[in-house]
Design a protein that fits this description.
Largest sheet: 7 strands, mixed
Structural class: alpha/beta
Mean pLDDT: 95
Number of helices: 20
Strand order of the largest sheet: 9-8-10-11-13-12-20
Number of strands: 22
Radius of gyration: 27 Å
Length: 595
């Protein structure tokens, strides 16, 4: 296995039934490691059930940079017997299983050779500390003991987590964690992974993709957010609602996605920076109003966070299968920008940039994510707020529109949709003197009127005006990002978009000691497609591969269509699970050796 050897990092998987507090416990443990200066990446997996079902939380911890989860597990925390049965085979040699020997389901279980059994009476210790609900906290204390760490950072984290509740609740949890730590002390010496605090480590954020997108929107000066909850976009709504008062944002939980999109278009009409977000199914309901945003040249930002389809599909899992969908959604032809963040830093930066692009181009901008980005957390450097710039484009916010000759006709009448070389008309907000506001879903003339007879010349001119924005967009959108060797020097060149970034970068680190040089390109802006950059990258490479999380090869299809070329190899995944670095490493190794 190409993963880092046991002892250099820690991989913990916590499993059990829904309702056991698995994610909450795991994130508490993650914060403890972050407090010690360690790097963290987590992965939450759960079925789309209201109650019940098997849930897992996987935590990867390292003193050095990491960018994704891995398949290997060092410590399996089994809050029920099903976790042992399902995941024992994922343990590395010498891995440990923390389990409750007093649970009758575990009465007959014996650890096989190569597995360290860590029997902890989780339920009894939890009850002694104050209640059975804390048995997950008992297990967290045991994990820290195994890796040679004191319980102190976990205790501090628990006190902070429960600070808003009665003081005794926090202390009961600290007592539970301490009991688990003491119970595991006897076997800790036989466990091979030991971690230490990283002194003077730079401060890091522990965020998921939706939190990063929410922070990016706040940094951009968002004024209105509307959404109907749909996994995995729901937590953006939760985040915005939690911060609406302090940030001065109006947040609306709408009756459905149709209302959300229409409200966002209306908010943009007033000059407010506005956004909505959903999964593919919710975006399907938004599509007609999305087209209205295009014809009315409204500056809106739309998050589309992919989960496997069609229809309801797999609501809590991940995929990259909505690329072609967002490129062509809504009837007719119109310009749009599609940005695909690869990690949480990308999510923050591309979100604030999306608001600028929407204003500059006066057209919808899509942030294309997925569940792997939305639901999972990683440590990142503090976001660079000094780099955030607000550009509202051609916008008149006050005064008299007559003072802006580029926005009026010879008689001084406001031309909202004036024909321009770059496709961008001056936008005057409601309340600007002399600016009669006309906006609807119809084709229109330069004033905004749906002209009698609907003349062909005006239809053609307005259509060409809107489409001209794509040429301007090419000069404004973020270019592809490159990593590793130059393509002409590499044994293999890999092209990808979105959250494939993390596993690809991780696999590149693993394969470097093998003497394999890899060049990688992340297509950050998927539309307008960066055909020249991609063509140059692939054209300079000896052997090429595209990695994407869908069945039909949607990025590969864009390369064929826009670059008139193909790649040598592909790697697809479409079972609802994200790529692992192990999968990517194996593919890169295979392609390099075949070359």
């Amino acid at each position: 296995m190409p993963a880092p050897p046991t002892g250099s990092e820690l991989r913990v998987k916590i499993g059990g039934e829904a309702g056991f507090g698995i994610k909450a416990a795991g994130q508490t443990l993650a914060r403890s490691f972050v407090a010690l200066g360690l790097e963290v990446f987590d992965l939450t997996e759960y079925p789309s059930l209201i109650r019940g079902g098997h849930n897992t939380y996987t935590l990867r911890v390292s003193p050095t940079p990491i960018s994704s989860h891995v398949e290997a597990v060092d410590v399996l925390v089994a809050l029920n017997r099903g976790t042992i049965d399902l995941h024992l085979g994922e343990l590395v040699d010498g891995g440990a299983v923390i389990y409750d020997p007093e649970d009758k389901e575990n009465a007959e279980w014996q650890a096989p050779d190569g597995v360290l059994a860590v029997p902890i009476p989780l339920m009894r210790l939890a009850k002694d500390a104050g209640g059975p609900i804390m048995r997950n906290t008992v297990a967290l204390g045991a994990v820290l003991a195994l890796v040679g760490l004191l319980v102190d950072p976990l205790a501090e984290g628990l006190r902070a987590q429960f600070a808003h509740k009665a003081p005794e609740i926090a202390e009961q949890n600290v007592l539970a964690a301490t009991a688990g730590h003491e119970a595991a002390a006897d076997v800790a010496a036989r466990f091979g992974v030991k971690l230490q605090a990283v002194p003077d480590a730079p401060r890091r954020l522990l965020v998921d993709g939706n939190e990063a997108i929410g922070l990016g929107a706040l940094a951009a000066g968002i004024g209105f957010y509307a959404a109907y909850p749909m996994t995995p976009a729901s937590s953006v709504l939760h985040f915005m609602a939690a911060h609406e008062r302090e940030a001065g944002v109006v947040v609306k939980h709408t009756e459905d996605e149709i209302a959300a999109m229409n409200m966002v278009v209306g908010a943009a009409f007033t000059g407010t920076r506005a956004m909505c977000a959903s999964a593919g199914g919710g975006f399907a309901l938004m599509v007609e109003a999305f087209g209205m945003a295009a014809v009315s040249e409204s500056a809106v930002v739309v998050g589309v966070f992919t989960r496997p389809g069609p229809a309801t599909g797999l609501p809590t899992w991940t995929e990259q299968s909505d690329l072609r969908y967002v490129l062509h959604a809504a009837q007719g032809e119109f310009p749009r920008v599609v940005l695909a963040p690869g990690d949480r830093t990308d999510a923050f930066e591309l979100t604030w940039k999306a608001f600028n692009l929407a204003d500059q181009l006066q057209t919808p901008v899509i942030i294309l994510g997925d569940s792997y980005l939305s639901d999972n957390r990683e440590t990142v450097p503090y976001f660079d707020l000094d780099a955030v710039q607000v550009d509202r484009g051609k916008l008149v916010t006050e005064g008299d529109v007559a003072d802006h000759p580029e926005a009026v006709d010879e008689a001084g009448r406001y031309l909202r949709y004036k024909l321009t070389d770059d496709g961008i008309s001056t936008r005057a907000l409601p309340g600007v003197t002399g600016a009669i506001q006309l906006g609807n879903s119809y084709e229109h003339d330069e004033y905004g009127y749906g002209s009698a007879g609907e003349p062909v010349d005006m239809r053609a001119a307005q259509n060409e005006k809107r489409m001209a924005k794509l040429e301007l967009a090419r000069t404004l959108v973020p270019p592809p990002a490159t990593f590793g060797a130059a393509p002409e020097d590499a044994d293999v060149a890999v092209l990808f978009f979105g959250t494939t970034k993390g596993p690809v970068l991780e696999a590149m680190r693993w394969i470097e000691p093998d003497g394999v040089k890899v060049a990688a390109m992340q297509v950050v802006t998927l539309w307008p497609f960066p055909a020249e950059d991609v063509s140059a990258f692939l054209g300079a490479a000896r052997r090429t591969v595209i990695i994407e999380g869908n069945y039909t090869g949607q990025l590969q299809g864009l390369v064929r269509e826009q670059c008139l070329r193909d790649v040598d190899e592909t790697l697809h995944r479409y079972d609802g699970r994200p790529f692992s670095p192990e999968m990517v490493y194996a593919k890169l190794k295979e392609v390099a050796e075949n070359a």
